[in-house]
């Protein structure tokens, strides 16, 4: 984030006039730079000391910390070195993700969702979620602008944390709303497909969590655990066939309870975002809209990533 922001302050250093605004802004930038360096030194203590990017190996001249030209050129060189490392690791197959763009600054910074309203609106309009979003685009822009203020030494990065948590909550509301809808859809499918469909959606949700590095997020972790328990308790006889006698009880005890649980989570997340669920779908509407949006119409495992790809495609697209 810092490397994305600092370059836009070049004009303050190029303007040689000693005006109050320039002096104040330059002092703010340099103070923030010093803060970032201290953070990196603190957090790199447990990193591999043999890495070329370890703070002791990057060749930073601390005597030039207050020279903007040096700071900017050093950041640009470091950026180029990191991009080369990503490309090399992608070429030799070391990267976990197939698309190396997920490691680019523009993706990691998530500025597509703060700098303009286009991508947020596109994502909202991609699905019929029946959510009243209120001024969500204004909120995303506000937290983005606050994170871009280099007052981090004063706020201790709280504005940055708020920026990321707001965007991630926005993503989670969308994914959980689709999860709510998907399980209502699954409930009304042939019994022979239910377990497979649940496993497919669980895979999609896990991909979503992995892509956004939300493995420690309490909300998504609880939902994944709940779905896993849901699958484990699917009523089967000793011979592995479906127990149709217990199936209605299972739907009542697990599926309906799970759908209500998801709705409550969405409501809590929406409180912070200023959005709310307008209305829910009835069974007939779910089946119709699921047919239009291709949400698991068959057992093709590749369908499990459609929603995940929709979200990540907007995040990493041109």
In brief, what are we looking at here?
It contains 14 helices and two strands; from the N terminus they run ααααααβααααααβαα.
Q: Overview of this structure, please?
A:
With 318 residues, this protein is an all-alpha fold. The chain has two domains: 2-107, no CATH class; 122-316, no CATH class. It is 64% helix and 1% strand. The chain is built from 14 helices and two strands. The chain has helices at residues 2-6, 10-14, 20-43, 68-91, 105-109, 118-125, 136-147, 152-155, 158-187, 191-211, 218-232, 247-273, 283-293, 306-316; strands at 131-132, 276-277. It has a two-stranded antiparallel sheet with strand order 1-2. Helix 10 packs antiparallel against helix 11 (218-232). The longest helix has 30 residues, at 158-187. The protein is elongated. 21% of the residues are buried.
Distance between the termini: 19 Å
Count every helix, treating DSSP H or I runs of 4 or more residues as helices: 14
Which spans have pLDDT < 50 for at least 5 consecutive residues?
A: 291-307
What's the β-strand tally? 2
Q: What is the residue-mean pLDDT, rounded to a whole number?
A: 80
- Share in helix: 55-70%
* Biggest sheet descriptor: 2 strands, antiparallel
- Helix-strand category: mainly alpha
> How large is the share of residues in beta strands?
under 5%
Instruction: Going across the biggest sheet, name each strand in turn.
Output: 1-2
Element order: H for helix, E for strand = HHHHHHEHHHHHHEHH
Summed up, the domain count is 2
Oligomeric description of these chains: single chain
The rounded Rg comes to: 24 Å
Shape: elongated
